[in-house]
């Protein structure tokens, strides 16, 4: 069986925990897009494990974890994460597979990301500055360098020098110091030697696994609202976050995916710029941010907070055929006297759908809210739906009805075991 987990909002929905739980039974856990702009945290016995590149399933015994074709790799980050897991006694030669089609984040990509942001000034997008936009731009304009080239050292050096000469001209225009290829060659050499045993034809591995009816878990990064085509461009990321991104980023046909899990955080958060219709600027936002520790896993930036935007989540469900919901961080709402959810928008008094909005419309519209009474109890140890406070049950039931998708998991604390299964 093939399962996909995707974020239905602006990222940071708590996918890491959901993937980690589901990975127990999987033979393969696969990342198929994005890079170390993503950040997933798994908490085991009070200890936090932040991930950026290596799939979250690495901490489970059974699965092999795969970095598939659509992922972009920063050599420093991959080496660093590999070292952490090796120190924990994980045999990566048996546990990790990397596709040769993955593109490399080169030093000039990070410099360019930063330089573009600086040049945008007050209109900056708020990227993670990990070089994500520039590396995907090089990929689609045939200027990328992949793991495939890295494994052929003279070819890699030739390509690196050629690209660096061009990118340095752009960097100089931005007033940024050019990069020196020689400075970076040792790190790439180290990466090449280190990952050589882990490189494999992931397409064939997936085909074989599909034939053998093995369990494949696809771990989405970011959230649907950040999708390059369907998110609020240009306040998006550079990859395809939606269900179709699986085929593009792994070669696994979308038709083979049986379960598409949408992870819905019980409220909204966002890092970076762009409109956020339900954004809160009052004390409630501070309470949620502190209680939910809403600071970026990747950048440490405080996240913007808002009420749950169900109109946007419904759009995500429809776009990606989401057929199962995991609600996360609902415990963070305990103690609020009133909770709101957004069911639609009005622009100049008229109804407008999320899909009709560009960022200029979204900045101006008024959300239409439904109010819910809150609950006071600590719910972090509750194991069954019926034991949840009645108002919390009502909140969950409403989400399910509105989205017309079954809620299957409710996560009530960061701990691996703290979830209610329905
Ligand atoms: P980039 O992906 O670094 O280019 O950033 C583009 C936008 O996507 C920025 O607003 C980032 O904050 C946002 N973003 C990228 N990845 C994530 C994620 O995993 N969680 C939340 N926001 C993200």
Overall SS class: alpha/beta
* Number of helical regions: 14
Largest sheet: 9 strands, mixed
User: Can you name the CATH architecture of the largest domain?
Assistant: Alpha-Beta Complex
The CATH superfamily name of the largest domain is Adenylosuccinate Synthetase, subunit A, domain 3
What form results from the Cα inertia axes?
globular
Q: In terms of per-residue confidence, which ranges show pLDDT below 50 for 5 or more consecutive residues?
A: none
Rg over CA atoms, rounded to whole Å, is 21 Å
Kindly identify the CATH topology of the largest domain: Adenylosuccinate Synthetase, Chain A, domain 3
The hetero molecules present are: inosinic acid
The amount of beta strand, in percent, is 15-25%
Helix content: 25-40%
Count the strands?
A: 19
Mean pLDDT: 95
CATH C-level name of the largest domain:
Alpha Beta
End-to-end CA span: 20 Å
What is the number of independent domains? 2
């Amino acid at each position: 069986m093939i399962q996909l987990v995707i974020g239905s909002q602006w990222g940071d929905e708590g996918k890491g925990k959901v993937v980690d739980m589901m990975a127990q039974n999987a033979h393969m856990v696969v990342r198929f897009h994005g890079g170390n702009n993503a950040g997933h945290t798994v908490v085991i016995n009070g200890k936090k494990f932040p991930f950026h590149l290596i799939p979250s399933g690495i901490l489970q015994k059974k699965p092999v974890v795969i970095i598939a074709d659509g992922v972009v790799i920063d050599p420093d980050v991959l080496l660093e994460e590999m070292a952490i897991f090796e120190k924990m006694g994980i045999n990566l030669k048996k546990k990790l597979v990397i596709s040769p089609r993955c593109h490399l984040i080169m030093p000039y990509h990070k410099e360019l990301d930063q330089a573009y942001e600086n040049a945008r000034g007050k209109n900056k997008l708020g990227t993670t500055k990990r070089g994500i936009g520039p590396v995907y731009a090089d990929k689609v304009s045939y200027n990328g360098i992949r793991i495939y080239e890295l494994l052929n050292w003279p070819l890699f050096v030739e390509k690196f020098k050629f690209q660096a000469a061009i990118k340095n001209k752009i960097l100089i225009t931005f007033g940024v110091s050019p990069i020196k290829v020689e400075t970076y060659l040792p790190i790439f050499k180290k990466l090449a030697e280190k990952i050589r045993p882990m490189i494999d034809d992931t397409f064939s591995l997936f085909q074989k696994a599909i034939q053998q009816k093995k369990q494949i878990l696809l771990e989405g990064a970011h959230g649907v609202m950040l999708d390059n085509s369907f998110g609020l461009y240009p306040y998006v990321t550079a990859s395809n976050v939606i269900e179709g991104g699986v085929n593009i980023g792994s070669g696994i046909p979308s038709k083979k995916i049986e379960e598409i899990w949408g992870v819905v955080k019980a409220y909204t958060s966002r890092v970076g710029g762009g409109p956020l219709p339900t954004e809160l600027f009052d004390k409630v936002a501070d309470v949620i941010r502190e209680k939910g520790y809403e600071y970026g896993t990747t950048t440490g930036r405080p996240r913007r907070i808002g009420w749950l935007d169900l109109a946007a989540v419904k759009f995500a469900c429809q776009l990606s055929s989401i057929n199962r919901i995991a609600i996360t961080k609902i415990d963070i709402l305990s103690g609020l006297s009133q909770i709101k959810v957004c069911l639609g928008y009005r622009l100049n008094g008229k109804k407008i759908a999320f899909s009709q909005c560009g960022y200029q419309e979204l900045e101006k519209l008024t959300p239409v809210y439904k109010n819910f009474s809150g609950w006071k109890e600590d719910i972090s140890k509750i194991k069954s739906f019926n034991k949840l406070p009645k108002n919390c049950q009502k909140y969950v039931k409403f989400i399910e009805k509105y989205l017309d998708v079954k809620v299957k998991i409710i996560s009530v604390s960061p701990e691996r075991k703290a979830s209610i299964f329905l």
